[in-house]
């Protein structure tokens, strides 16, 4: 959902009502939940007190559920992985030195070792390690298309991609 511009006549936030015209109100982030592409986005059968986003027909929960590459499904996969791997719940956090737009870290608990690599940049990146320093299978890519890929040595990350790797013992 996006921030929705609120016309002066539609303002409901008490703070914005006290200092009008400053754009400090919270109404734009409090618009009705966009459940589906139906009337009033499935939020209500009556007109809501705040306007809906202009893209509510295409940006809604029903659309997210239908798209396996959506943020909705990414979060569900992340939650499932956290439940399945003790290292992601209780494991130690160990940052790994990286340069540029990369964020790398390890989560470890006993034999459960998960390596996270995030490319926060707009360009692809490659992370190089000594042979077999990072070896395992890819649990998740934020793009949703690399699960179970074998990883050994170099890690190639697309722009804005994050991955989780289950490291071999």
Q: What is the average per-residue confidence, as pLDDT, rounded to a whole number?
A: 92
Based on helices, strands and strand pairing, what is the structural class? alpha+beta
Content of β-strand: 25-35%
Termini separation (Å)?
42 Å
User: From N to C, what is the helix and strand string?
Assistant: HHHHEEEEEEEE
Number of strands: 8
List the helices and strands and how they pair.
Layout: H1 14-18, H2 61-66, H3 71-84, H4 86-90, E1 92-96, E2 102-109, E3 112-119, E4 125-127, E5 135-141, E6 150-152, E7 155-157, E8 162-167
Antiparallel strand pairs: 1-2, 2-3, 3-8, 4-7, 5-6, 5-8
Q: Your description of this structure?
A:
- This protein is an alpha+beta fold and 169 residues long.
- It has two domains: 8-66, no CATH class; 86-167, Immunoglobulin-like, CATH 2.60.40.
- 18% of the residues lie in helices and 25% in strands.
- It is built from four helices and eight strands; from the N terminus they run ααααββββββββ.
- It is elongated, with a radius of gyration of 21 Å.
Pick out its properties:
alpha+beta; Immunoglobulin-like; 169 residues; six-stranded antiparallel β-sheet; two-stranded antiparallel sheet
